[in-house]
Amino acid sequence: MEVQQTVAVRHEEVRVEREPVTEANRSDAMGGPDSARPSTK
Fold it and tell me: If DSSP states are collapsed to H, E and C, what string results for 1-41?
């Protein structure tokens, strides 16, 4: 017996961007994620 079934496949990509921590941005960097950005969960 042969069975055919359609299965949904989802491909997600994530891009991580990093920048150096400097004296100018230290408080923002140590404060965690930017709350102004929408969550992508």
Answer: CCCCCCCCCCCCCCCCCCCCCCCCCHHHHHCCCCCCCCCCC
